[in-house]
Amino acid sequence: MIPLSRYLGRLFHGERLSLLPEAPAVICRRQPVLAGADLFRSFGAGETRSFALKGVSVDFRPGELNLLMGPSGSGKSTLLAVLSGLLRPDTGTVGALGQDVWQMSEDAMERFRLQHCSYIFQGYNLFPALTAREQLEIVLKWGEGCSAREARSRADQVLGQLGMSGKSHLRPAELSGGEKQRVAIGRALVKNPSFVFADEPTSALDWENGQQVINLLTESARERGAMVLVVTHDPRLTPFADRVFELADGKLHAEAEVPAGTPLTLPRKCAHTPLSADAPRLRLYAP
């Protein structure tokens, strides 16, 4: 047996070592960072009560872009709100980063959302009195305690990626619907969150700008390790996703998933077809 000091000396001097046999590669699937279990959510009471979610169980891993699709009224936005800590379920649990979301106090949940979550809403939810740049800066100053200089630098960088550099000084009333949407998306991504929840983020955009948005969301997942969940009706987004979930009548069922380590030989474009009445309610695509 070669002493450790001699082994290291040979290693640092660039000698090729054949002491250890080559070990087979081990493929490790990342553990989920967000999971919902047996989620039910209803609206109304008595005879008018209706269920938007009917026992949904699903989990998500870091570094993945997930699409949640289905017909209008299927419960997509309700599921996103429940998973993201915005809407309490009737029954069921949501776990995020090892914590039970709906067992947190209101203060703890607010801190958790501020630190780990970003949201992109259809209605933009921008502050009327703030400029496009200030919409992003305020997130960094409040959420991360950034200096004014760092907040401005990071805000300008993200606005530049979204093609909004020339309009960073404008307020929401001076922006078009598509421009407001891009500012809302920039605000969500500027703080490098653990979770990004987006409700129809490309609905107000043409495809050129929509591609910029989905590229930024993909970058957040692939390069920054975020879990990205997007509610959408747009089938053009499916080639960018790791998994595509289809929800119908408040129910979700798994059909297939690409095993870890399997070479991706599927085409980049995946057809999205409406569900038939007896079809599985979840489909998983590999880009």
Q: What is the average of the pLDDT values?
A: 80
Spatial shape: globular
- Count of DSSP strands: 9
Which residues sit in consecutive blocks of at least 5 with pLDDT less than 50? 1-28, 254-287
Beta-strand percentage? Answer: 15-25%
SSE string, helices as H and strands as E: HEEEHEEHEHHHEHEE
The tally of helices reads 7
CATH fold-level topology: Rossmann fold
CATH class value: Alpha Beta
The CATH superfamily bears the name P-loop containing nucleotide triphosphate hydrolases
Q: Give me the side-by-side strand order of the main sheet.
A: 6-7-8-3-9
Q: What class do helices, strands and sheet pairing give?
A: alpha/beta
CATH architecture: 3-Layer(aba) Sandwich
Helical content (DSSP H or I, runs of 4+): 25-40%
Describe the largest sheet. 5 strands, parallel
Radius of gyration: 22 Å
